[in-house]
Amino acid sequence: MPKARIEGLLAAFPKLMSSGKQHTFVETDSVRYVYQPLEKLYMVLITTKASNILEDLETLRLFSRVIPEYCRNMEETDIAENAFNLIFAFDEIVALGYRESVNLAQIRTYVEMDSHEEKVYQAVRQTQEREAKNKMREKAKELQRQRMEAGKKGIKSTGIGQNMGGFGSSSGYTSPVIESPVEIPKSTYTPAKPVTSMKALKLGGKSRDVESFVDQLKSEGETVATPAVAKTAPTTASKLPTSPLSNTEDVHLRQEEKLIAVVGRDGGVQTFELHGLVTLRIAVENCARIRILLDNRDTRGIQLQTHPNVDKELFKKKSQIGLKNPAKPFPLGTDVGVLKWRYQTQDDSALPFTINCWPSENGQGGCDVNIEYELQHTQLELNDVNINIPLPIGCSPVVTECDGEYKHESRRNILQWVLPVIDSSNKSGALEFSAATAIPSDFFPLTISFVSKQPYADLKSIEATHVDDDSPVKFSSETVFYTEKYEIV
Questions:
Q1: Bond before 329 cis per omega within 30 degrees
Q2: Is 488 exposed, middle or buried (0-12, 13-18, 19+ CB in 10 A)?
Q3: Contact predicate 412/346, CB 8 Å
Q4: Nearest to residue 274, comparing CAs of 341, 333, 227, 200?
């Protein structure tokens, strides 16, 4: 079909549409326009008159659900900015003019285009950038050292030069000698500033020369990117508790676990991954040579892995974390990862709590939706639980029953079920609502998020001791268990 033909069909659509009536299609002699209003815009499908209009309406509904995935505002400028993302998504729905059998979750997966080669390339690129940045810092330190040495030499050479000038002039030996000591203190005072900044550099502070060196590279067109950890920090921080610990000791342990789970709407775990990490932070030097005793009561078969510098045999035999070289201390003032673990399964009982979403058509063109949750691991206490339920565009749900609170975000077409705490005292709850002009698949995928101060793995630190005399060391610890991705598809 030539471009002129398509432009002609689109130009004819506003003239054919009756503004005073609400329809879903309009026909001409050769084609049928199937359309749906989206606030100030229209989503239009142009088909032949022989096409099945029920299938066309279903396709149109899927198209309209894809747009909010990429466009926050239903405006022409926003759609134009995300045109390529929308084209990629539309291409997964229709291929060569025919509808593909896909749902919204599959479209998301296809458009993400997750590539192992890209991940490897990004990892190599980040390593190269990190090495380049370290070299820049070393170069900045070298320049600082050279400037300091030149400053010291400049003091001596200046004094000698002035005296030589005094000795060389036949008329007036006395006056240059009297004037030169007056000038020398001014020059000897100024190099004292680099000495102070050099001490700050040794202590690990950020030198101004490093910043200026990086800024100079940026001005010359070099791209200096921050490591990937710094980029992902805001995303992770938004999921973690924001209240800092006030009673942190000189030895502090942090146990962090993140959950990735995908569950089918009819049951069955498709993906379950748990990633855990224990980090150690030591503030003072006299606590740097220590061992940490862990109480491991895990019965699920979680795979534990120690840092390469940690003594593996000591960990296997005594469940203690200590360095291979006992005479070597742990680094000071930084979070050091000492133990990590990973757990994968497809067992339904591994889920900390389950969601059962049951939408059913009510015979009036809409759906009645019943959702219930149940806490399976009753030893856990889940905080800030949010269950996000997608809605059709323009739908206003009518909630008839709700344990907890709910929010309807009309701009995002989401009904948010909010539960501040889920524990053994309220291990189950339900939400019921009805939605007009909806079908059961409109309410998937559900996304769930929560945080917990109790670990999923039955693993905790119970004691810290000095390496030399096994005397106890006071330590503090914190635990956070949160969801990185939890979906019901």
A1: no
A2: buried
A3: no
A4: 341
* pLDDT (tens digit per residue) in 411-430: 888 999 999 999 999 999 99
> Domain 3-112 adopts which CATH fold?
Beta-Lactamase (3.30.450)
- Report strand pairing: 367-375 vs 353-361: antiparallel
pLDDT given for residue 184 in this prediction: 43
At CA 387, angle to CA 384 and CA 393, rounded to 5?
Answer: 135
CA 408 to mean position of chain CA atoms: 25
Nearest Cα to 338, choosing from 325, 321, 319, 324? 321
- Burial per residue of 162-189, b for 16 or more beta-carbon CB atoms within 10 angstroms, e otherwise: beeebeeeeeeeeebeeebeeeeeeebe
Determine which helix (DSSP H) or strand (DSSP E) holds 266, and give its type and residue range. none
Q: Which of 19, 58, 57, 68 is nearest to 35 (CA)?
A: 57
Cβ–Cβ under 8 Å, residues 459 and 294:
yes
Q: What is the DSSP string of 396-427?
A: --EEEEESSEEEEETTTTEEEEEEEEESGGG-
Q: Which CATH number fits domain 353-452: 1.10.150.130, 2.60.40.1170, 3.20.20.70, 2.60.40.1190?
A: 2.60.40.1170
- Classify residue 59 by burial, with Cβ atoms within 10 Å: 0-12, 13-18, 19+: buried
Q: Take residue 464 and report the two structure tokens written for it.
A: 């810290």
479 pLDDT higher than 60: yes
Contacts of 337 (CB under 8 A, 6+ apart): 277, 278, 279, 307
Nearest residue to 121 (alpha-carbon basis) of 273, 250, 205, 228: 228
Asked if 334 contacts 288 with a C-beta cutoff of 8 angstroms, the reply is: no
The pLDDT, as a whole number, for residue 173 is 39
Q: Which two three-digit tokens encode residue 208? A: 């101004």
Closest by Cα among 388, 390, 408, 409 to 399: 408
Outline where 344-387 has alpha helix (H).
none
Q: Where are the domains of the chain?
A: 3-112, 117-219, 231-348+456-488, 353-452
Domain 231-348+456-488 indexed as CATH 1.10.10.10: no
pLDDT in the model for residue 465? 92
pLDDT band (50, 70, 90) for residue 214: low
- Do the first three CATH levels of 231-348+456-488 and 353-452 match, i.e. the same topology? yes
Q: Could you tell me the two tokens for 66? A: 């894809």
Residue 382 · residue 351 · CB < 8 Å: no
Query: CB count, 10 Å around CB of 15?
Result: 6
Structure tokens at 85: 């993302």
- Joined together, the tokens standing for residue 212 give 């200026």
